[in-house]
Amino acid sequence: MDKAVIFIVEGATDKRALENIFKKIYKYKDIHFEFTYGDITSDENIVYSTENISCRNMQKVIDRNKHKREIMDYLLGCDKIKGIPYRCYYLSSNLDHALYNQLNLSDDLKLQYSQAFYEQFMGKETLFIKFLDMEVVNGAPESFPASWRYIRENLHSLQRHTNLNIYFKENPVL
Predict the structure, then answer these.
(1) Model pTM?
(2) How far apart are CA 37 and CA 2, in angstroms?
(3) Percent of the chain having pLDDT more than 90?
(4) Which of 30, 37, 116, 166 is deepest in the core (most CB within 10 A)?
(5) Residue 65 CB partners (closer than 8 Å, separation 6+)
(6) Per-10-residue mean pLDDT for the chain, 174 residues long?
(7) What is the SS3 assignment for 32?
(8) Where are the domains positioned within the chain?
(9) Closest C-alpha to 126, from 22, 8, 15
(10) Counting Cβ atoms within 10 Å, is residue 81 exposed (0-12), middle (13-18) or buried (19+)?
């Protein structure tokens, strides 16, 4: 059976920033990126900072976050979905914050940043792994379960963290 690795990200600019980097790093794997056209758990206009979330309807966001946590609890308890191995990684508070250290970008700026980010690693894609370790992990533990406990503590989910580096450690470049 052929194996593919599928990454699901929120938007086209997320896909643009990462897809070709992953395809070059893992040139012998069948890598696919799909996107969901935004945060599938919210239709609120949310403004993030490293200390809080602002929006028009805070109760709706509180309910959304509770529901999101329930979904993540379920998914993190799954090693497989319909017999297919599964893992979920985070780039918080969103990909723009994790990769570009920018919050609340307009669509135009997301496009500019994603293109510049890809170009930064073009021809030197394996440096992306070092970039994650040096710039984005920011104290998140190296074990998958501990990294998820960490991101749920204090304000870590609003700060610049990722556990995507664990994917690279568990799936070394050949």
Answers:
(1) 0.86
(2) 28
(3) 45
(4) 166
(5) none
(6) 73 87 86 78 78 89 89 90 89 89 92 94 91 92 94 93 93 77
(7) strand
(8) 4-170
(9) 22
(10) exposed
